[in-house]
C-alpha cells in the first residue's frame, strides 16, 4: 500500500485515486491566471488543517502579498507561523524593504540556488514540514534554461530527501503545450496541468493529470472552478476540448 498525502482540494483526491504518493515532487504547470498559486496555497492550507506543517517558497510575489491573497480565501497562515507549523520562505525581496525585515526566512540573493536550498532546508527542518510549495521554479531558470534540469534535480533531492511531498509551480506561456521544458518534465514524479480555454467568448477552466508516479489516476480532463473558497474540481465531469468547441459531460462512474 502506497502512503499518500491528501491534497484536500475538493475533487482532486478522487482523480488522484486517493492522493499524491508520499515524497513525490509534482510539477504544477499552466499559463498565467490558470490557478497555480491558489492550488498550491490550498494544498498547504488543507495540510495545516489536518496537522501537517508546510512551507511556501515565494519567488514570484512578495510574502506579504501571498499572506493577503491566502487570507482572502479564509486561509490565514499567521497563527501557524507563530506556532512554528508554517514557514514562508522569502525568495522575492532579497531582504529589501521594511516588510522584508520582519521575514524570518530570507534568501539574500534569490539568484543563488545554493543559498535558496539552504534556506528551504532550514525552514523544512524548523517546522517539520510535510508539504512544500515552490512558486515558481520557472523563476529560477528563466534566463538560464540550460540549468533547468539541474536546478529541479537539486530541489527534488532536498524536498524528497527530507520526506516532504511537494509541488513545484511551472509557468508556461498561453500557447505552449508542454509543462516547462523536457529536462524538468522528466525529472519530476508527477505533472498536473491547469488550463484556460476561451470558447464562445467564455473562459473555461480544466485540469489534467499527465503523470503521477506510484499510482493510477484519472486520464480525463476535468473542469474546475475558483470561488471565494478556493478550487473545486468536478471529478465526475469531463471537459472535451475539440474543434467544434467545448463539451462538458458527466462520466458514467
Ligand atoms: N475569489 C475568487 N473567486 C473567483 N476567482 C478568483 C478569485 N480569486 C482569484 N480568482 C481567479 O484566479 C486567478 C488567479 O489565480 P492564480 O492562482 O494567481 O493564477 P496563476 O498563479 O496560475 O497565475 C485570477 O485570474 C482569477 O481568475
Ligand atoms: Mg501565480
What does this structure look like?
It is a single chain. The chain is an alpha/beta fold and 253 residues long. It has one domain: Rossmann fold (3-Layer(aba) Sandwich). It is 30% helix and 30% strand. It is built from nine helices and 14 strands. The strands form three sheets. Strands 6-5-4-7-8-3-9-10-11-12 form a ten-stranded mixed beta sheet, with helices on both faces. A two-stranded antiparallel ribbon has the order 1-2. A two-stranded antiparallel ribbon has the order 13-14. A hairpin with a 2-residue loop joins strand 11 and strand 12. The longest helix is centred in the middle third of the chain and has 15 residues. The radius of gyration is 18 Å and the shape is globular. It starts with a strand and ends with a strand. The relative contact order is 0.20.
**Any idea how many domains?**
1
Strand order of the largest sheet: 6-5-4-7-8-3-9-10-11-12
Helical amount: 25-40%
From the 3D structure, determine the CATH topology: Rossmann fold
Q: Looking at this structure, what is the CATH superfamily?
A: P-loop containing nucleotide triphosphate hydrolases
Which cofactors or ions or other ligands sit in this model?
adenosine-5'-diphosphate, magnesium ion
State the order of secondary-structure elements, H for helix, E for strand.
EHEEHEHHEHEHEHHEHEEEEEE
- Tell me the strand percentage band: 25-35%
What global shape is seen? globular
Number of helices: 9
Distance between the termini: 24 Å
Q: What average pLDDT do the residues reach?
A: 94
CATH architecture: 3-Layer(aba) Sandwich
Q: What is the CA-based Rg, rounded?
A: 18 Å
Low-confidence stretches: none
- What about the largest sheet? 10 strands, mixed
Q: Which structural class fits the helix and strand makeup?
A: alpha/beta
Oligomer: single chain
